[in-house]
Amino acid sequence: MRVLAVLGVALLVACSHLLFPFIRTGQDLLWGRAESAVTRAVEESRRMVDEAIYHTMKRDLSERDSPSPSQLLSFSKLPEPTSRAVSRAAEIMEASVQAVKTRVYGKLGRSQPPTDVLPEDVLSTIANLSGCLPHMLPPTCPDTCLANKYRLITGACTNRDHPRWGASNTALARWLPPAYEDGISEARGWNPHVLYNGFPLPPVREVTRQVIRVSNEAVTEDDQYSDLLMVWGQYIDHDIAFTPQSTRKVASEGEADCQLTCKNQDPCFPIQIITMRDYIPKVLGPEAFQQHVGPYEGYDPTVDPTVSNVFSTAAFRFGHATVHPLVRRLDASFREHPALPPLRLQDAFFSPWRVLKEGGLDPLVRGLLSRPAKLQVQDQLMNEELTERLFVLGSSGMLDLASINLQRGRDHGLPGYNAWRRFCGLPALETRAHLRTATANASIAGRMMDLYGHPDNIDVWLGGLAETFLPRARTGPLFACLIGRQMKALRDGDRFWWESSGVFTEAQRHQLARHSLSRVICDNTGLPSVPPDAFLVGRFPRDFESCENIPGLNLDAWREVLPQGDACGLQGGVDNGDWALCGEPGQRVLVFSCHHGFRLHGPEQVACSPRGGRFQPPVCRDVNECEDAAQPPCHPSARCRNTKGSFRCECTEPYVPGEDGTTCVDSGRLPKASWVSVALGALLVGGLAGLTWTVVCR
């Protein structure tokens, strides 16, 4: 995902028309030579990236029966087709920028630009040839009654002036300039000879070992909040801040595998109502919530709700320090279940069969409601289930969540701890004594200073975790600022926020305000009683309330009744599509849409006639994805076959579809035709042997 962020910054500079213009004298001739070289560099980069993706999938297929922890992580973050296309294009662009910098300018006898950003026409050419440009252009927003009433599932077009703000498959927002060692993508700490305030950055695994990791037994339980507080944070984090893993994990065949080497070789490196009303105030504390979020004052079209790098990769990952090493399962009396003992996390990862064969969801939900979360304590930041045994299904391999978090921040170019304190208006910490005051823990402050040398160098995720909690909060001042700022942007920059004028009626808003997570649990589990506030740890039965007394949502507020004599409608529907009635009486329209894989031919919206009447509705026609030469849906190794509403990438034996469903990889098995040949050959040899024996005997 770091390359997506790099792309966003690079294109922003490219479009500024301010930096690094070509000198006009002799430009056309020189650029003609450069353009050809740039084109070749992009094509070479495309082949390199596609080859790396292919060999990654080939390796994953061969090791499917015994996946490593890193492969399990990769499988869980496998991007869907659109995200995969964006990621691939961004990786091609990044590789092309590096190739042009190191080879093209050198071959032309020209010095590189004074900074690491290439001239704008070079960047524009690379963006176009790599396939990045279409993903950066504003989408076409539908202008229909429904589009003005409901948000798109992608989040695009929520802001009509900036249709990509807050949309999926867009680069994370940067609140501070990125900190990369080469100015483009090399993470801090990549080059061991680079010093920060006179000190090298420590390896992330060493930070885990000396500062973060503790045994599973070293757990201080939260005396106020339930385990559900941690689970809800995980849920909304993966909903609003989920980023795909790189589509390639090996450079190319025969080169470095990131899981088998510690070399710094690319791409390797050692290792919404419930939320805003009930969850965020508990995390920030009431004072910080009022300061950084405050009351809702209406939709603000100048606010960009795009999720930021620092929120996604650092601040909102504070919740990892609240993960308990055990999954508690309780019986109907909320006691330890005799047949379902507590599970270690490593035994719960990638084990959905346990839900089906070990009591269902209810024992798990009871444990979440009535057992406390792990308290985030400076000397007990993360247990061994997460630092030593993340996604470990067998006896080999390991993943360390703390090291992944630290490295992710560096990979995304996040500046150090003090840069973010200054951003939030907090005083920078300059000495060991300052750090000791901010953490109220001399031991952890000393270990951090011994590793990093200077507070400026501390990774922001660790610095934020180590701060002392604000009053009635579960974060310190830095993370309260960053999380609060992001949540306010998500709320105020959302045209369809539930409290925004015109989105819901007064009756509907009243019903929404009655809803709660406790009601959701009552409606979706077999539990007959729940705590009124599901985030507060409850003792059964004292703190539990019958589900009959938990307020619910009355959907009558959304009931629409067509007035008598309203002749607006469509008999029979639309093949491979749908229609919906929208608008107020006297101004009703029919809005048409097509199912995925079909394209609408005809008007998207038709006004209703007061007298009714017949009209010819539009039709939905199948899209032949296989005819897209610019962005073919299948890898060259596969044959594309169009199907109704979709397509299929077919492989010839012994090749089989890879994890992406579009690339053919060698299965390692003999094709069926080979087995037939072997059988016929054996039959022929046997027949000849028998005939020879008969002749000899006679």
UniProtKB/TrEMBL annotation:
Named cofactor requirement(s): heme b
Cellular component GO terms, alphabetical: extracellular space
TM helices/strands, residue ranges: 673-696
Protein name, per record: Thyroid peroxidase
Gene name, Swiss-Prot/TrEMBL: TPO
Record's catalysed reaction(s): 2 iodide + H2O2 + 2 H(+) = diiodine + 2 H2O; [thyroglobulin]-3-iodo-L-tyrosine + [thyroglobulin]-3,5-diiodo-L-tyrosine + H2O2 = [thyroglobulin]-3,3',5-triiodo-L-thyronine + [thyroglobulin]-dehydroalanine + 2 H2O; [thyroglobulin]-L-tyrosine + iodide + H2O2 + H(+) = [thyroglobulin]-3-iodo-L-tyrosine + 2 H2O; [thyroglobulin]-3-iodo-L-tyrosine + iodide + H2O2 + H(+) = [thyroglobulin]-3,5-diiodo-L-tyrosine + 2 H2O
Residue ranges occupied by any EGF-like domain in the UniProt entry: 622-665
Top EC group: oxidoreductase
Stated family: Belongs to the prostaglandin G/H synthase family.
Role description: Iodination and coupling of the hormonogenic tyrosines in thyroglobulin to yield the thyroid hormones T(3) and T(4).
Organism: Panthera leo
UniProt cross-references to SUPFAM superfamilies, sorted A to Z: Complement control module/SCR domain, EGF/Laminin, Heme-dependent peroxidases
Subcellular location(s) of the protein: Secreted, Extracellular space, Extracellular matrix
Positions of heme b binding: 320
Quaternary data: Interacts with DUOX1, DUOX2 and CYBA.
One term of GO molecular function: calcium ion binding
Keywords, ordered alphabetically: Disulfide bond, EGF-like domain, Extracellular matrix, Glycoprotein, Heme, Iron, Membrane, Metal-binding, Oxidoreductase, Peroxidase, Repeat, Secreted, Signal, Transmembrane, Transmembrane helix
Record EC number: 1.11.1.8
Protein's GO biological process: embryonic hemopoiesis; response to oxidative stress; thyroid hormone generation
